[in-house]
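Open question from group meeting: does this chain pack into something compact, or does most of it stay loose? Before anyone orders reagents, we agreed to write out a predicted structure and look at it together. Recording both the input and the output here so the notebook holds the full record.
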Amino acid sequence: MGKLASITCLFVDIGGVLLSDGWDHRARKKAAAHFRLEWAGMEDRHRMVFDTYEEGKLTLEEYLDRVIFYAKHAFMRAQFRSFMFAQSQPRPEMLDLILRLKSRYGLKIAAVSNEARELNAYRIRTFKLDRIVDFFVSSCYVHLRKPDADIFRLALDIAQVPASRIVYIENTAMFVGIAEGMGIKSILHADWKTTRARLASLGLPDDGGEKGDHGPG
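Structure tokens returned:
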């Protein structure tokens, strides 16, 4: 029972684990095609400002000013914002898994994620993430962004749980490596089935649910 008793907290990425990515390369490419924007120019401008935006130092309106609406377009801001938000989709089987584990083992759940403020708020509200997550260490709130190791240090300080008693679920290999270097057991997430099995091997077996179960919300 040693392993079973040792894990008291999960650190969980949002984009790519609990939900789809919010505003990734594929979503931006879809937006460029949908709104008939010049892709290369849009992507260049995005790269120049996106880290600052995700660190909470630009509002969504400022981001759009610099990336899209520096020129006139036939579509409105509200249309583009709605398209951005609509790219977020839930991963129901992962939402359901984390909720079951939280309930069964009394785990603390922390989201440690690179998220822009307005998209983060939309995603929390729309997919009821606050029913699962106890606190959000989002880049837009803490002004730190993975791969900066300080975001993990801050999450540890907030959680008040030793690194050895935490499991981190993340879909980016570099970020997994950083967390592991700090003594945090980490899972490189690929899909529900393998992550569920890996959690069981770390002392958190799931007591129910099959693929296709629906998550909260």
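Observations to bring back to the group:
The mean pLDDT is 93.
DSSP finds eleven helices and five strands in the chain.
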